[in-house]
Predict the 3D structure of the following.
Amino acid sequence: MQSVALKIIKVKSPSEKAKILAEFNPGTSTWVVSDLVSRSAIQKNILDKFGFVEASACMRVSDLWQHLLFSVRPDIRVVSPALAKALIRNWLTESEYDFAKTPGASETIIHYLTELVPLLSHPESQNVMLPWFEENQGAFVRWGLWFREATRLWKRFSQEKLIARNWICGFLVNEPGFEKNFSRALIFDLGVDVLAPELELMNGLSRFQEVVRLVPDPDWGPELAQTQNWKGERIEYRRFSSPLGEIKDAVNCIRGWIDDGVPFEKIAVLAPNRKRIWSTFAEFLKHEGIPVREVEPDPMSAHGHVAQLMSRLELKNGKVTTDKLELDLFHAEEAKKIFTNYNEFSRIFSFLYESKDLYRHSEVAHAYEARVSETALSAKDFLKQISNLWEDEWPSELIERLFSEILKDVPTDLILDKQNWISYLGELTRSIDLPEQAKSQEGIYLENYFSAEHLSVSHVYFLNVTDSQFRKARRTSILDEDLKSLSRTLGFSLVVNDPNIPEYTAKWILSKDFSRNILSYADSDFSGQPEAPSFFWLQGAIANNFDPKKITEPGKTVWDSLQESMTLTNGLDIEKNFDGAIHLSATALSNYNRCPFIFYAENLLRLEVPEGVDFDLGYRDLGQLLHFIMEKIILDKKGLAASKEEISCLVDEWAKENRFPIPDENLWREQKRKFFPYVQKFLETERYWRQRFPLTKTVGVELKISAEIPSSIGPIKLSGKIDRVDTDGNGNFAVIDYKRSGASISTLDSWSQDKVYQPLFYTLALESGWTALGKKHVSTGQFYFLKDGDRSRAYYVVEDAGTLYDVEDSKKNKISLEEKKNLVNEMLSVINTTAEGIRKGKFLPQPSDEKTCEKCTWRYSCRAKHLM
Ligand code: SF4
């Protein structure tokens, strides 16, 4: 025995710690840090100074505890948190308590186990806790039963000689002898993030070798909960309305610093969780041409084949969801694809409730038939199942890595419930990072903030400083007063993280002497959930007279410029997409004039808006079906009074002719029942209308429009289909556009403002002779709502009334011939100005009415300024 006690060195600031590091002798001592990034930074420091670095010169604290565990208990196997959780789920099924079998109990109990390990692993734990709970009845009510359950589970882990990695330090405090198994001097550089059992371990080690603990002791608050003197000076505070704005501003700042000559390696972007921002940030940086020094997080679960494997496993074991089915079916090799048409798939499987639903399609049902009937499987059988599902063409290195991780982690004789194996595999693949990609030696840092202390950088942008990221709620019901009592009366220190640690660490890092230091947060996260600033952002902002309500306008990035350049008349894409002419239809005109970006996404990039139809009819299907029925019943002179049976046969005939997917007879019968109200309403409306206006004749169904008109910016090609054209046989025509219902269609007086063009576009087409009917005089242009037979959202020319319609009601849809002429001329000028905008490449997300954005499919991709 040499040393006497743990030596505490108080450090006022990160720069003071740097001086201690400069004196560090890696030949005889080990510098202990909490994370991998700090370890790399210290190792680099040693390498730069001495030209080489031994593995024992710098260690992660968790590796040190694991090393000490192996030295005293080589019989214990360390397992991943994923396997610990799987075992807990398995063993909880044997619990005598109902609460332990509820969903989420395994998540809670794992927190109890982690916190209570120093107590549970002590041989006297039961004997001392019984009287303690008697003394502390309140504590027993809150967590007494959780303790009993945790004790039972701990015994199972002990019998199996298994331990989770994060339980080791709590376990070691009760293992005599560990302290003699490390011969080098130790310097613990863990900041304030030190658990009570870790302090015990440091004390134990200090009896046999020199042990130093570096303790932060800044002027602004030596205690975790007492940092009110922190002023947050020399920091710029920023607030944004969206996380995208925040990222753009950070990218803009970095670009500015680089342009000012700041080297890449002196710039760091810090965040509470870099994985959350990585993909978006990296994409922006790529466009700027700015390299990142860190390795991109690459969890195994994100690889397509692993995700496909997980989907298959779930589907074959009765957990059916549309996204899993879609993932597996549409990632299949071309030759093995069951569906080639997404709409067909979507119609059948948009909604899935149970595995029986797979029988809507016989091939799908066959593909996912459960081949393994047992509910419990050994590790060997589970590996066999994975191997059977893994296709020969899929990358073998992925499955090899997966098998090697499982075999390292799982005892071969382990038997688990099938679903538990799948959950385990899901968690394991999420925790495995594939580090094969080489870390770039040049570039800026993009790091978790707590890893940043040892980075030698001068310019820092610290983002996502929100309350939710810095305040973690306690996951157990063990209160501070319980902890104090356990420590005072029984001498047990539990593994409990102080909730103040994240903020304290952030303040400590921010007290480094950076040249530029920006602290920001956004009012919402990427999913649109509202966010509040963390307490230390507010504390610093107020102390430095920054108005916390002020929203910062994000700086511009190269991406913004690229987007803006789309307004230039380079015309390349447009020429390519439009084959020399601008193509327009009524929908394209509406899209462009509602917002040019919608047109860009749907008409130029041809991105599709899924209809989400299930077996339900889209309105186009419905329109087609009604045309079909009309042809059969009206045009074939069968009269308008068809029986239910006749209609049913006609629907079958239509479905067959149009290859409408018929999943299963029962479902189809059910589905047909939904069509009847539409068919009946349609026939009723037609009966009524044709009785009143017996001259009405339908002369066009899905009438094609095709025209090319000259303009100052080149030819404009016009196309489309008019749902229906009627005539009275006396030279008056009606153009009709079917809609399922009228919820989103405005009345005539608002058409121009709401960019509703169909009736007038079709009128122009028919009057200009752009259809097979030749030039015709149009007296009315209407929307026909199939749900209720309403035809009032229309224009009716007063002078032409009498044979196709009358104008007796008080609705404001009557116009004179002269007014109709003006409206049709306006339509022509909309066509010309739209074509001009397109030709000039104007596609910015600028809606004519911001209300359009509320329901717009592209709101998460258009990056409109007013949405950030
Ligand atoms: S969300 Fe608004 S700005 Fe963006 S594309 Fe849609 S309409 Fe245009």
